[in-house]
Amino acid sequence: MFLYDYLMSVGIHKDRMLSDIDYEGNSIIHLAASLGSPPSTAPGVMLQMMWDVLWLKRLKYDSFPHLWQLQNSSGKTALQVFEENHETLRKDAEKTTKELANCVLIVSVLIATINFAAVFTVPGGFEQISGNPIYLKNKHWEFYCLMIYLAGGLLSSLITMGTLLGIIFLRFDAEDFYAALPWKYVFTTIAMLYSAGFTILACCQAYIIETVVVNTFIFLIVLLCAYVLMAVVFMDTAYLIFDYMYYVIRHSLSYRGQEI
């Protein structure tokens, strides 16, 4: 892709490169529709399918409009060639994505269940007469912080489940791999990070309310290590998809006003 960007920026024989037709009637868009045609193939079938769709769209809108519906010697347009060459990859990407979404859905349901149950089993229990939490009077601020963390964890888990269900029920057409699936993946990853973070904070706040923590400094070190570990896992799982989304946004702005 960097070589292509360089050739487009230099401008030498650019029009010839974009308009040339080979002996089989294939344009540059037909060549972009080949499996694995992007210069750098991303790891994983889902990311590869995303990059292939993005690459096809990039070449399509760089080329001349009369080539968009051009048929080669086999009577196929570039889109038909793309769908034919990527049918197996699309099915593999659909299967992998649904399996991953189902696994994450189970985790998000467990986190939501933990936070929901914790709301009704607060530290210290409830008073027999009024029914109010025991720590609500003498630890008012700490108790409200706990409720905020539990609500944040529960809400983030519900958002995660919603986006995951949206992924599972996608049609998984080639067009879905361009923006719909990546955006849902990003929202799911961020919501999952927040749900785990709020749950950890709620657990720590419960320890503080119960005055279980003796050494606050060691407690903060452990909490910091937990968040650093979460950040590392988040970056490891989300870096490639964020890199892809950068190019999607960049190309969308470049071709603003066109149907991309």
TrEMBL record:
UniProtKB keywords: Membrane, Transmembrane, Transmembrane helix
TM stretches of this protein: 100-126, 146-170, 182-208, 214-242
InterPro entries to which the protein is assigned, alphabetical: PGG_dom
Keyword match Lipid metabolism: no
The UniProt record lists the keyword Oxidoreductase: no
Domain of life the protein comes from: Eukaryota
Any matching Pfam family: PGG
All residue ranges annotated as the PGG domain in the record: 95-205
Protein name, as recorded: PGG domain-containing protein
Species assigned in the record: Cinchona calisaya
